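Let us work through a complete example step by step.
Step 1: write down the sequence.
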Amino acid sequence: MTAIYRTVFAALLIFVISVNAEAQNNVPVYMWNIDTDAVTNPLHTLNSGELVEKLASSLADHQLIAIFMQDELSVEDFKSEDLSALKSVAESDNDGTFYHPSVSNPENLPKTLQEKGYNVIEVKSHQDLPTTSINERTVLVIHLPVTLAGDLRSENLQLNGDAIANVYEVMKSQQPNVVGVFTALKNSKIPTAATRKVKRAAPNGITNQDIFVNSGDVFLFMEKPPVLKLRNDKTWANFTLDQVPEYTKSGESSLVLIYTNIEGIEKSNLNSANISLSFVQKKTGYWGISQASISFESVIGGATVSKTDLVLKTTDISTPFGFSYHCTPKMKLAADADTTVIFETNGFQLEPFKGANADRFGDWYDCQGFFTEAIWAGIFLGLIIAAVLAWAISMLADVKSPDRFDDPKGKSISVGTAE
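Step 2: predict the structure and record it as tokens.
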């Protein structure tokens, strides 16, 4: 029975994990002014084709479909009050609404409807909106302003909801049976490498920003600004690379980060620095850094120091192809032989050889091994405690009880002593 329970529990766990992963990787779709009896499983992900097939009979009597396409959207957005204006307009229609929390590739909805005989029109401004009733089956794709991230997202989401309500009311006055559709290109809960999330450094020099670099073939994420350490004779200068670097490609599998005009301390300044990383795909199915080099011009202690194409020693990175290399602790990514240049990072993720349509990192391959310092300390302390416990048990085992006892009816036990 225990084996059966374990099997059932494992199956349920795999099901829950797969459902959660599937729900997080897809986008909700909200439709209104549509009379439909379509029933869908909220735990099942629909693609655009399946969604249109389920609603085909309900859309047959509607000549105009307005798709309001946002950059990011999640189920949590519908639970908040940010879209109150949109929900108020949608619920006021007599024909009802349709909602599905998980639809994959919603950007294919216009194409799917076009295959069903609809004419697709991209709306880039209010001038592209129809001014009269439409007699042909038409889909209007209205791209909404970006919502961004952070504290401004809630405000921008409310503005988009108000804009949808206003535009829809205008179209409904011209064509009462227009169907409204609200969706997005991707889920707002899934970060992508193509997104540049940057927090500018504060004027007082506090640097706390994370940086995404997407060159098309190489994805790089830095949790904290890297530090470039340069030495001129016996004088060291540290430069915190807290600006978003420019980047170029010098080949299909290389990345060049370009930094300019970064101030240090004590009359030091980094005029320019170009850090080049070249990657190689090994025959064993792994990828690694084949070469790293740096070219820089700096002022250290009033003296100008410059080097060109200085080859750097690279960390032994060996990661399976299709995986990203992830490293959280501080480490020296590159240092040359005589230790005059050190490029130091504190939390980064790297993956080359990305496809043209890739929008996120692959599964990460961490630089930190399984046996960390904390685990070794725990094992060492556990062995000490086990040894002390074993010694205590052995001492208790050596305790001997008396083998003779006094008999009240017999002669008492006497112990003789000799001097």
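Step 3: interpret the result. The longest strand covers residues 286-300.
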